[in-house]
C-alpha cells in the first residue's frame, strides 16, 4: 500500500465502463452485462445467460496520475466436472493504450458444469482484489480489461490519486457479434482475443457481443445491436448454428435475412460486415450436433451428424458459407454498405497447418493473434469495409 498519499475510493459508475450494454446492481456492487435487461428476460438457456455476463471486451476506463490501483471484485469462475480447474482469469491494465500490468483475483464463486448433462452447480466464494503497482507517475488514460472468462461483479476502485472518467477520444465504435471464438475461447488474456487485437490495430472502440455457444441468430440479440450506437458492425455467423444442429437450410436463410433486417432498422447505412466461420475441419462437411470427446484427459470436439443428410437441408460450414455469400450478394444490390468476408480468409488451410485448433474447434492464443491481424488487414485496412475515412466521429 502506498503510505505517502491517502487512498481515493471512486464509486464504480456506468460512466467508467466501456463495452457493456447494461449494468445490474447486486448486493456486492455493479455487474456488467453485454445484453440489455429486455434481451436477458428472453434468454432460453443457462449457456447464454452465463456467456453474456462474462465481460469479454468490457473495461473500466479512466484518467489519473495514480501509481497504484486496486480493484475489488467478486468473480464467478467456470469449471468442468472431471477436468482440471482452469487458471484464474486475467485482468489487463493498459496505460495510454499499451499493456502495462496484469493481475488475477483468487477465490470467488465457482460454477461447476457437467458437460454431459449441461447441468451446473454454483459454489459460493469470497471477493478478492486485483492490484496494480508502479504505474507511471503522470496523467494518463488507464483501462482495466476484465477477464473474458469470468463473470465479474465490480465492488470498489481504490487509487493513490483522484480518478475521472476517460475522455472521449473520438474513435469509431465497432459493434461485433459472434460465437465462442469471438468471445475469446482459449485466448490467454482479455486484450488478446481476436476482436480486441483487431480493434487495437484498427484504432476503434470495441463492443464485443461474442457469446460462447450462442451465436444463433437470436432476435433479441439483433434488437440489442439495432439499439446500440455504432459506426461499424460485423456479425460472424455459422459455427454455432452447425454445432448445435439448431436449424435446417430452409429456416436458416430467412433467419439471416431477419437478423440483418432488424440491425438495419437502427443502422440503415452503417458499414455492416457479414463474416462466415473460420476453417474448422470437423464441421466443414459434417453436420452437428457437436459432442465433447474426453479421451486423453483433455476435451476435444467431434461432429456427430451424417454428411449424407446435407441434401435434406442439414447444415455444414460449407453449406452456410454458400448461403451467406448468396444472401449478401442479393441484399447488396440495394444495400451498398453491406459486405461479406469468408472466414477462411481469417484462418484457412495454411493457418490450420501452422496453428492447428487444439480442441478441433477453437484457436490457441497464436491463432487468435493470426485471426485478429487478418481481420484488421482485411476490414480496417486500405480498401476494406471498415477503412477509416479522412474524418469520422464516433456515435455515442
Automatic annotation (TrEMBL):
Domain SsfX3-like N-terminal: 18-149
Domain of life: Bacteria
Signal peptide: none
Xref: InterPro entries: SGNH_hydro, SGNH_hydro_sf, SsfX3-like_N
Domain SGNH hydrolase-type esterase: 178-370
Protein name, entry field: Lipase
Organism: Actinoallomurus iriomotensis
Amino acid at each position: 500500500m502506498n503510505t505517502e498519499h491517502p487512498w481515493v475510493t471512486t464509486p464504480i459508475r456506468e460512466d467508467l465502463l466501456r463495452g457493456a450494454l447494461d449494468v445490474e446492481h447486486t448486493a456486492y456492487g455493479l455487474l456488467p452485462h453485454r445484453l440489455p435487461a429486455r434481451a436477458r428476460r428472453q434468454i432460453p438457456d443457462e449457456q447464454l445467460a452465463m456467456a453474456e455476463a462474462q465481460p469479454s471486451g468490457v473495461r473500466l476506463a479512466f484518467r489519473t496520475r495514480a501509481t497504484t490501483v486496486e480493484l475489488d471484485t467478486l468473480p464467478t469462475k467456470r469449471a468442468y466436472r472431471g477436468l482440471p480447474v482452469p487458471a484464474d482469469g486475467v485482468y489487463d491494465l493498459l496505460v495510454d493504450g499499451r499493456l502495462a500490468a496484469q493481475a488475477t483475483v483468487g477465490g470467488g464463486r465457482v460454477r461447476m458444469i457437467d458437460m454431459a448433462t449441461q447441468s451446473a452447480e454454483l459454489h459460493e466464494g469470497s471477493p478478492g482484489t486485483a492490484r496494480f503497482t508502479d504505474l507511471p507517475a503522470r496523467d494518463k488514460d488507464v483501462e482495466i480489461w476484465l477477464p473474458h472468462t469470468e463473470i465479474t461483479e465490480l465492488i470498489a476502485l481504490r487509487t493513490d490519486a483522484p480518478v475521472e472518467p476517460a475522455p472521449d477520444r473520438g474513435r469509431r465504435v465497432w459493434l461485433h457479434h459472434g460465437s465462442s471464438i469471438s468471445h475469446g475461447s482459449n485466448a490467454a488474456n482479455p486484450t488478446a482475443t481476436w476482436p480486441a487485437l483487431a480493434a487495437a490495430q484498427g484504432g476503434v472502440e470495441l463492443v464485443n457481443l461474442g457469446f460462447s455457444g450462442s451465436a444463433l441468430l437470436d432476435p433479441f440479440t439483433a434488437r440489442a445491436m439495432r439499439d446500440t450506437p455504432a459506426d461499424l458492425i460485423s456479425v460472424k455467423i455459422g459455427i454455432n448454428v452447425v454445432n448445435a444442429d439448431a436449424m435446417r437450410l430452409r429456416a436458416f436463410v430467412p433467419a439471416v435475412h431477419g437478423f440483418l433486417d432488424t440491425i438495419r432498422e437502427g443502422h440503415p447505412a452503417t458499414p455492416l460486415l457479414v463474416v462466415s466461420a473460420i476453417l474448422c475441419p470437423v464441421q466443414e462437411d459434417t453436420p452437428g450436433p457437436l459432442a465433447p470427446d474426453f479421451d486423453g484427459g483433455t476435451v476435444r470436439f467431434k461432429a456427430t451428424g451424417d454428411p449424407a443428410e446435407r441434401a435434406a437441408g442439414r447444415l455444414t460450414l460449407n453449406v452456410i458459407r454458400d448461403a451467406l455469400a448468396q444472401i449478401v450478394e442479393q441484399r447488396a444490390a440495394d444495400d451498398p454498405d453491406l459486405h461479406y468476408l469468408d472466414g477462411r480468409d481469417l484462418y484457412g488451410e495454411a493457418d490450420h497447418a501452422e496453428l492447428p485448433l487444439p480442441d478441433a474447434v477453437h484457436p490457441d492464443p497464436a491463432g487468435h493473434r493470426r485471426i485478429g491481424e487478418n481481420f484488421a488487414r482485411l476490414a480496417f485496412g486500405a480498401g476494406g469495409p471498415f477503412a477509416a475515412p479522412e474524418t469520422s466521429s464516433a456515435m455515442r
